[in-house]
Design a protein that fits this description.
Elements lengths: L12 H12 L10 E6 L14 H10 L4 E3 L6 E3 L2 E5 L5 E6 L13 H12 L17 H4 L14 E5 L2 E5 L7 H4 L10 H5 L1 H6 L7 E7 L3 E6 L13 E6 L3 H10 L4 E2 L10 H5 L3 E13 L12 H10 L3 H7 L5 E3 L9 H4 L14 H10 L8 E6 L3 H18 L5 E6 L2 H9 L7 E6 L5 H9 L13 H12 L3 H18 L3 E12 L3 E2 L15 E2 L1
Parallel strand pairs: 1-10, 14-15
Antiparallel strand pairs: 2-3, 4-5, 5-7, 6-7, 8-9, 9-10, 11-17, 12-16, 12-17, 13-17, 18-19
Helix pairs in contact: 10-13, 13-14, 16-17, 16-18, 17-18
Amino acid sequence: MRGARHAGWAVGATAVALVATACGGGATSGTQGGVLSSSWGDPQNPLEPANTNEVQGGKVLDMIFRGLKRYDPKTAQAQNMLAEKIDTPDSQNFTVTIKDGWTFSNGEKITAKSFVDAWNYGASLKNNQKNAYFFGYIQGYDKVHPAAGSQSADTLSGLKVVNDRTFTVKLNQKFSGFPDTLGYVAFAPLPRSFFSDHAAWLEKPVGNGPYMIDSYTRGFQMALTKWDGYPGTDKAQNDGVTLKVYTDSDTAYTDLLAGNLDLVDDVPAAQLRNVKKDIGNRYINTPAGIIQTLAFPYYDKDWDRAGAEKVRTGLSMAINRKQITDTIFQKTRTPASDWTSPVLGTAGGFKEGLCGSACEYDPAGAKKLIQEGGGLPGGQLKITYNADTGSHRMWVDAVCNSINNALGNDRACVGNPIGTFADFRNQIGQHKMTGPFRAGWQMDYPLIQNFLQPLYYTNASSNDGKWSNTQFDQLVDRANAETDTAKAVSTFQQAEGVVRDNMAAIPLWYQNGSAGYSERLSNVALNPFSVPVYNEIKVG
């Protein structure tokens, strides 16, 4: 999700407008027909599975791709999708057998090679894929994606095609949770056209999910249509989805109330007081595997100096989480007391109170710690956030107000808005942050590992602030190698303790998924990732 935007992505606006006109009227087809419209934001990059790790692009990929595993839309448990079975004798060597009868939407048969070629592409340094890190446990990754210098191999030595329906995976260490990661979109299969005519594929991606992309114009909308030949059991219960781009969530909500939009999957904070009155039981508020944090730019020496951990911990203690979640978010958020999510459950690694006093509101203690740590770098804190979602401004202002009150200085903390999510992410990727910045995390798969390793492991794919700690890395490696689930979780929690002791990021609150929908729709739900289960929605 960091990197240059590809100019070739857009298609003609006239074509999209024609699609929208044809679909937007709600014409039905059979008993399950109709096209629904939903709020959306432009993805940062073209929709390559291994190059998309932000929410908006992920929504589309979840509609047009299916992988070896799929996370249950109610429980988030990993279940076999294209995988018939995944066997291992030792948690390091895996044999994957895929189901017969699956094809891409262009008719091409999906084979073991469809997965192996896709994973090799995603891992390769020369392809500059943002999710390359997810292939890091496969043997040979250090050759195709070295930490420095040029790659010395083009393919992962740990991947071998046995026959059309079987391939083997050899990891560079034991990783008992590996099969459960394979529902993440980076591990999706890819058709031959992705490699043979990459530019054309980027213009109109071809996948194997229940929907196909019909057209897209950046800044306007994307039209997806139901794939009638989809071989899976989770077929689309509607004719398609039109994703409409909004740069302001309040406008999307207004369009919902006016009948110009069917689904808003992020009810803005300013509307939470009125949403039940506005749409009644068509409002959804359900727990999700999402945590909001404040991340820091450790590439800036002011935040990586000795004593800065006291400043960060003091800032955490200066934030009145309960007041903010109660008043601004109307209890659709819960104050965070660890760095994971309650969705995991205690057996899965959630540990309420792990943060301890560092996450408890204590303005006097906060001021003392910040002073002991040398004070705010530059004398003022600027919290950077994307301004295209109205609720971010509200909570950032509230956080700053809380910090200012604690420090007795009404200019100690200010918000620093950036116009769009894509621009915000680009600036983060280019290491342009000079102070804390919004860092929401939506789980890729329901493991404690996913809340820690991608965000805090040295050079991990979503370690935007470039925090690095050898003790943390070693504990994560130990946890991944542990075949006993309970012991693995306990070791991950030790690693989480290192995050706490250094206040690598400030945990703010756990987020519920919220959505509102029109009277045209039924069977609307959000999955534990806070994404609408589009294929189950019925129109009319």
